[in-house]
Every structure is written in C-alpha cells, then in structure tokens.
Write a structure and sequence with these properties.
Elements lengths: L3 H26 L12 H6 L8 H9 L3 H7 L1 H16 L5 H22 L22
C-alpha cells in the first residue's frame, strides 16, 4: 500500500511532465511561442528587486531552445534546481529523512543568499541578475 505522500509526489511529477510535454508540443508546432512571452515578474514590478525566480521563464525558454549557456545567464539557480529535483524524490525515503531536512535548510539559506547577492548594486554580482532579452542570443 502506498503512502499519501508518494501519491502526491507522483501527481506533482505527472503534472510537471504534462506541462513540459504541452510546452514542447507548442514550441514544436509554432516556434514563435518562444518569443511571445515571458510575462513580467510580479514581485519585481511590486518591489523593484529581483526575486530568486526572476529570469526563470527566460532560462527555461532558452533551455528548451537548446541554449544551455543562455539559460544559465538568465537564472543559474533555477537551472540547478531543475536538475536537482530528482534527487529530492530519492531523499524523501525514510532512510534519508535526516539528510532531506538538512538539505532543505541548506537550500533555504542558498536561496536567501542568492536573492540578497543578486540585488547588491555592485559590478561583482552583475552575473547573478538576469540580463535583458536583447543582450543574450538564443540563436543556434
């Protein structure tokens, strides 16, 4: 008998896979979908600072277009999280529970540090802020 957490995790994975598949089909059928958006960041519009997710939509768009380095320039944290998600499902098993909670604390600290550093107005941290769409080429 499966636990409710596993079935919820399965539902999350299924929804993510369906969303990815629909986006891939939309891009395959009409590549102009890649330039029809991204929507503006509501948090940035409201506060004037970059959230940890600013640039994620453009990063995923660049990743789906096959431009991995442009994706990293838009939001390196979101790309790292995308590739780390399968690890989280493995660590949810009971034998890894303590490691899972420690990792959750580390991720929260990294998100806070990333958010603060990308908003520091110093040239050293410019690489953490998402560039404008015009400054990154997503052409192949």
């Amino acid at each position: 008998m499966s636990s409710p957490r596993l079935s919820f995790a399965g539902l999350v994975v299924l929804c993510a896979a369906a969303t990815f598949a629909l986006f891939a089909v939309a891009v395959y059928r009409d590549p102009s979908v890649l330039t029809a958006f991204p929507p503006p960041c509501v948090f940035r519009k409201a506060t004037g600072i970059y959230c940890p997710g600013c640039g994620s939509t453009r990063a995923l768009r660049a990743l789906f277009a096959g431009d991995f380095f442009a994706a990293l320039r838009y939001n390196p944290f979101s790309i790292a999280v995308l590739f780390a998600l399968p690890t989280l499902f493995v660590l949810r098993r009971p034998q890894f529970r303590a490691l899972y909670y420690r990792l959750a604390v580390v991720v929260c600290v990294v998100v806070l540090v990333f958010t603060v550093l990308r908003n520091v107005p110093h040239p050293t941290f410019d690489f953490l802020r998402p560039p404008t769409a015009a400054s990154v080429s997503t052409s192949r």
